[in-house]
Amino acid sequence: MKRNTIDFGIDLGTTNSEIACRDNRDVIVFKNYLQSEYTPSVVRIDEKGTVMVGRKAYERLLDDPDNTVGGFKRWMGTQQIKEFVLCNKKLKPEELSAEVLKDLKVTAKAKLSQDEEINCAVITVPCNFETVQCEATQRAAILAGIKYAPLLQEPIAASVAYGFLEKMPKGYWIVFDLGGGTFDVAIMSAKEGRLSVVDHCGDNYLGGKDFDWKIVENIIHPVLIKEYNLPNLGRSEEYRMLNAVLKNAAEEAKIELSVRDEASIIVHPREIIKDRDGKVIDIVIPIKRNQFELLIKKYIEKAINLFEQVLKKQGLSPNDIDQLILVGGSTQIPYLRNRLNDKFNIPIDHKIDPITVVARGAAIFAAAQFVPDELIKRNYSKAFIKLAYSPMTTEIDAAVGGKIFPSKENETLPEGIRVQIISTSGDWDSGLIETKDNAFFTNILLREKKVNTFKLSLFDKFGNKIPIEPDSFTITQGISVAEPPLIRSIGVELEDGSFSKHLSKGISLPARSERIVYHSTKIVNPGEDENVINIHVWEGESNIADRNRHLATLKITGSEIKRTFPENSEIEIIVSVDQSRIVTAEAFCPLLDQKFSKILVDKVSPKLEPEHIAKDLKAEEDRLKKIKHEVYLVNDKNIEQEFSDGEANEEIDEIRNDIQAAKGGDPDAVEKADRSLKGLKQRLDSIEYLLNWPITLKQYNEIINNCKNIVDKYGNDEDKDQLETLEKEAKKAIDNKDLKRLKTITEEILGIRWAVLFRQPGFWVSVFQEIKNDPGRFTNQRRAEELIEEGSIALQRQDLDSLKSIMLELWSLMPSEEQEKVGDRVSDAGIRKI
């Protein structure tokens, strides 16, 4: 079967993956050779290099973790590597995901005609996936032979499935997606059948896998430590094989607890594992549902808090939400469903299997995406019609057009050709449509909320039928999908470490930023690579660049330029993002008349080391102590409400545990620790901001009042105009509570103050006398003493010109903090005249 729409949808999951296809009115989730719709996202490679994917690989996770791996969706976009010991192979996360995609293609091919290729598919990603993770998913698709793979956010896919297979929710609804490794919560809406993401948030390291480890660490490990000789038992390299067995046992007990109040954790390794005394580890540990609920309470509350945040951000209450759609295997946990009901009391819908709903929605969406022309295999013995229409629409009267091309056998088309379009339901016929320049256009009538399939025929002027392809097409009426939003803001890092946004979160994709002009901070000479201008691209919402996620670095090097590029030269930067959230950046240098658009660093997160994260964590612990003391001194109730010492300490303990697990070789843990640490930094940044705002505002008010007095007395019209402009800018910064901008404006106002004072002869006398009475520190103490002596002589002679020259040199020898001290003392003393 030849397709002009993609039709195939894939849910590439942390725990399980599925592939589905929209075929006319039906959505089919393909079953694998075990007759299961789910394929475990697990890969094994044996000593011969044979790759196994799915259930057989999953079964070897327990006894052979050295050559088997799962859960690598969490590694996407990172530099984590899985080494398969038996065959001495190393695979990146996208290479592992590619093996899962290949296996899904085999599953689907078994049910399709032998000549059909699956070289296009819509692949879903979590709404909260970072750009580097999306790009890694695209690379995985290419490696699996999927040449065109639009990415679709999982909440949109779930909503499409409900809108098509069940009933489109009205107003607002929530997609709550908690799977094996990631969590998303998204507010969705549909206006006249057009689906859109209103807002979202999530956590790429929150899922059922974390629940499993809680059982291992808090239930199983304590029992084993008591019953066996297992010194320092934990998530370390020494106990890697044992922990693989324990995690599997925990997962099975967790699943059982979804339907029973009690379960047994059966630790019965396939391969014998012994303790230090040679005692075989084989034990059954009981666990009750309420024990499990206490263990996961913190994670469930985190998910619920994110749910609350996204509602609050949009000014919505639970009463504004008509429906709650549950997606992902972990949403089957009764405790979670009860908490959602108690907290929000929103009608919960899980009519469609929460594990396959995303794949189904992806397939429906795929039926609305055209296969690129270059990937359509033409039958050159037939005429070809390039169709133009919307495969998914809310219109009843839909436009359809097409351009007709001759077959290879007949290099030209006969004159007077006509087109006929007939609904396969038999209730609509276009009649014979005249063509002009071998093209046609018409409107067709669709049945409401139905999949409408049409047969396409081509006739010459004598009524003879001309063989064509495609000879049919399908339009789904009653649903369409709005352009996806940008999930995180994207911008570049500046010299001071700040983040300059180019594209803001929430804008529709694809998007292209305006051209923003910057200035270079160093000189670059042709042929020299010592000096490089790095343009770091980041995504996130923090004003501090390194609190966000690094995407890539655009470099301007000497080997790429033909003439010297001086410091402070203009650089114009544009950032673009496509619908699959693939980011490109380009820099244009007018002086060189040259464009740079090559990303020189792979789009993956920097390699993380547990030791570095531990050092960083220690710095944040010290910072937390300082903030805690400042919060106590300020005694501001609003700040106290925002600041929770207990929550911060819990976060630190969690990060510390992840660092220990990372040192034991868990690649998940190091990535999770890094993201948690960035989150902690941002929260502490927010508290520091609240603490610093009143201080900064007070400083501004004091300086503006002082500067006004000085400018009124000694300034000229230009000084007054500059001060008036800055005061207006400061008012905007105060209204927006823009701390950084207000600090910058305050410094600029100080600059005006100094400029006015420096023009006053009496000022130099005052400053000199202050320095003479209290010299302070100088970068060259000996020269400063000589200048003070020369200044005393000049002052005795009333030689103010010489004194001014001496003071300029003396001032340059003072560190900036000493200049401020002297300036404050002079300001307090007022202006003196000789």
Mean pLDDT: 87
Low-confidence stretches: 825-834
User: So what's the oligomer here?
Assistant: single chain
Bin the helical content. Answer: 25-40%
The chain-level structural class is alpha+beta
Produce the secondary structure layout.
Blueprint (H helix, E strand, L loop, with lengths): L7 E5 L3 E8 L2 E4 L9 E2 L1 E4 L5 E3 L1 H5 L8 E3 L11 E3 L4 E3 L1 H17 L12 E4 L5 H13 L7 E3 H12 L6 E7 L4 E9 L2 E10 L4 H20 L12 H17 L5 E6 L15 E6 H25 L7 E7 L6 H11 L3 E2 L7 H10 L16 E6 L3 E2 L3 E9 L12 E6 L5 E6 L4 E7 L5 E9 L5 E2 L1 E2 L2 E6 L2 E2 L8 E4 L5 E5 L7 E2 L3 E4 L13 E7 L9 E8 L13 E8 L5 E7 L4 E3 L13 H25 L2 H6 L2 H19 L3 H48 L2 H19 L3 H20 L2 H13 L7 H16 L3 H13 L3 H14 L5
Parallel strand pairs: 1-10, 10-11, 12-17, 14-29, 17-18, 19-27, 20-28
Antiparallel strand pairs: 1-2, 2-3, 2-4, 5-6, 5-7, 8-9, 12-13, 13-14, 15-16, 19-21, 21-24, 22-23, 22-25, 25-26, 25-28, 30-31, 30-34, 32-36, 33-36, 34-35, 36-37, 37-38
Helix pairs in contact: 2-3, 4-9, 5-6, 5-7, 10-12, 10-13, 12-13, 13-14, 13-15, 14-15, 16-18, 16-19, 17-18
